[in-house]
Amino acid sequence: MSTALPVNDSKTIIFEKWEETAKNKLGKGAFDYVQSGSGGEETLQKNVQAFKEWDIIPRVLTNVETRDLTTSLFEKKLAVPFFLAPVGFQTVVHPEGELASARAASSLSVPYIASTVSSFSLEEIGEASVGSPRYFQLYWPNDDEVATSFVKRAEAAGYDAIVVTVDTTVLGWRERDLQNQYFPMQTGAGIANFVNDPVFQEKYNRDGLLDTNELINAIRKILLNQSITWEKLGWLKQQTRLPIILKGILHKDDAQLAIEHGIDGIIVSNHGGRQLDGVRSTLAALPSIVEVINGRISVLFDSGVRRGTDIIKALALGADAVLIGRPFVYGLVDGENGVREVLQNLVADLDTSLALTGKTSVKDIDCSIVERVY
Ligand code: FNR
């Protein structure tokens, strides 16, 4: 029987307290980078608000003594139905950056998604999370040879899937980042995957003479690809045997196209309100997408998940698993232990919420236990 109490000697339980701690500990450039959304931050707020628009209607007297938080995706068992979302430039939050968050995740068997713009190479992050499920997130570079090289490296380093972020053809209009001259970019914190890439080095830095600023400029030129279309996904599929997941789907017709193009999974995401402002909250977008997908491929979900009950609601509306962004990044201000604390609490919160919902397995959560608030 699992306990309903937090399993650690936590100091900080509340999401908002972590956010406040991060605000106090980080400089303005770093904190704004993590916390802010794009435009007037309409979508950032909507993502969180959307969870309040659904009620959980729990069942009672169902014997919840034995509970199971595991699930499976792409034929692999996951200890919990949530991932650490891909988050770039993590050394602006803590010097150990992605190594700390990957170690914390792996110590609890929480699956991890490594960003293209990580502060450590995908191989180093892979080593920090050996034995635990991990995916590699691809910002599809505007250079096919570099794109192939990234995917092959991820395969060789033991990653289980490729997550292609499709909502970032250009960076969102992030007003606070713009005001801070995009602080994380200036630090050189997100270039490790490029400088450790043999193809990138051969093509863009053959003599190894570029300094950090020149490297940042070279990377900026190829980082984002504005010309990819659905047709190009066939080419990517040929480069790898790993499942391909598209991150950033909000329209049900794109969910349909994902199926038609042989994609293995999608992530219903608006990038945590950091890309196009004014778009739908992801929870509002989820039901119609789940209906189109109709169990044919995996549906993951992110943006606005803060607590165990948020996870329950997303699973009830048809997500197979969710991703957590800002909550773990705030924990990272205290390094590996801070991330672990956030994750342990989330696991305990989810377990508590599962029991009180009257269910014994996250796999049994379905739409019978939620209703829209009118
Ligand atoms: C992100 N996100 C993101 N997504 C991605 O595909 N590649 C990336 O490198 C990043 N980097 C990144 C940095 C920071 C600081 C944040 C907060 C987010 C988006 C992320 O994967 C996820 O979609 C959102 O964070 C989910 O929303 P919440 O949980 O933060 O509300």
Automatic annotation (TrEMBL):
Q: Which domain of life is it from?
A: Bacteria
Q: Does the keyword Acetylation apply?
A: no
Quickly give the catalysed reaction.
(S)-lactate + O2 = pyruvate + H2O2
Native organism is Evansella vedderi
Q: Which residues form a coiled coil?
A: none
Output this protein's name: L-lactate oxidase
To which protein family does this belong? Belongs to the FMN-dependent alpha-hydroxy acid dehydrogenase family.
Q: Which InterPro entries match?
A: Aldolase_TIM, Alpha-hydoxy_acid_DH_FMN, FMN-dep_DH, FMN_HAD, FMN_hydac_DH_AS
Cofactor(s) recorded for this entry are: FMN
Q: Give a Pfam family name.
A: FMN_dh
Keyword vocabulary terms for this entry: Oxidoreductase
Residue span, FMN hydroxy acid dehydrogenase domain: 7-374
| Keyword Oxidoreductase listed | yes
